[in-house]
């Protein structure tokens, strides 16, 4: 029975490459055509594959519906939280998780710093979208027309001398963030607070959330905080792997 299930499941990656006929499926599985046909019929009955008019098979709509339903029921906060706690235990600084919703970037989770001097933030509060590192990552992943339209309608308050001054500068920074795959806020919102952030990606590679480590410069310098970037990125990759189902992550690498 387990061999039958294994063979049936092996058909799905094949059809993900494009439609295939019975002979191609049988060859890939290394079985007789009658066995391949029996497996395909079972998958067809469950809507996981579809037989086209040219007698070739492709992935069925039911498979996509199941995938969409599973994605909608995933709670990124629940998946990410143990990783955020572990990162906080390793570095001691404030760790945030944020998402982009309805033209706002919101914190959806936070693990407090163990140091007495901390930054102020709270879950559910929108971030300063033009300067926050998590916002830069989330907006950098938007399609270019949407990214440009949003940038041009934002206000650009000058919180500090390092704040992003206008749309042109913001779009340039987003392009850099998109290319390098991480972001910083080095005194852009508050002179005394620095932040490094990395993206959490779904199965399709799109950014679904962003996580960050923030600390006052009286606790660590900007350079010291930037040295944590590899650890932050590994944590984000571990969350991405677990969220997308690519890897059975059991813990964040040190």
Automatic annotation (TrEMBL):
Gene3D superfamilies registered for this protein in UniProt: 3.30.450.40, Winged helix-like DNA-binding domain superfamily/Winged helix DNA-binding domain
First and last residue of the signal peptide: none
Domain IclR-ED: 62-245
Keywords of the record: DNA-binding, Transcription, Transcription regulation
InterPro entries: GAF-like_dom_sf, HTH_MetabolicPath_Reg, Tscrpt_reg_IclR_C, Tscrpt_reg_IclR_N, WH-like_DNA-bd_sf, WH_DNA-bd_sf
HTH iclR-type domain: residues covered: 2-61
Designated name of the protein: IclR family transcriptional regulator
């Amino acid at each position: 029975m387990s061999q039958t299930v294994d063979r049936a499941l092996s058909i799905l990656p094949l059809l993900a490459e494009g439609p295939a006929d019975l002979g191609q499926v049988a060859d890939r599985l290394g079985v007789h055509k009658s066995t391949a046909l029996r497996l395909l019929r079972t998958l067809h009955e469950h809507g996981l594959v579809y037989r086209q008019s040219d007698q070739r098979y492709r992935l069925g709509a039911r498979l996509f519906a199941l995938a969409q339903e599973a994605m909608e029921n995933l709670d990124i906060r629940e998946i990410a939280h143990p990783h955020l706690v572990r990162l906080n235990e390793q570095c001691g600084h404030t760790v945030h998780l944020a998402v982009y919703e309805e033209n706002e970037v919101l914190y959806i989770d936070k693990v407090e710093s163990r140091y007495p001097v901390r930054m102020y933030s709270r879950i559910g509060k929108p971030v300063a979208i033009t300067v926050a590192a998590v916002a830069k990552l989330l907006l950098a992943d938007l399609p270019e027309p949407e990214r440009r339209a949003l940038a041009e309608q934002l206000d650009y308050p000058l919180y500090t001398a390092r704040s992003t001054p206008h749309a042109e500068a913001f779009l340039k920074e987003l392009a850099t963030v998109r290319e390098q795959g991480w972001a910083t806020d080095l005194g852009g919102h508050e002179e005394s607070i620095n932040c490094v952030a990395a993206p959490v990606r779904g199965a399709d590679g799109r950014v679904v959330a962003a996580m960050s480590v923030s600390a006052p410069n009286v606790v660590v310098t900007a350079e010291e905080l930037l040295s944590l970037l590899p650890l932050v990125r590994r944590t984000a990759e571990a969350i991405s792997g677990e969220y997308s189902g690519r890897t059975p992550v059991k813990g964040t690498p040190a």
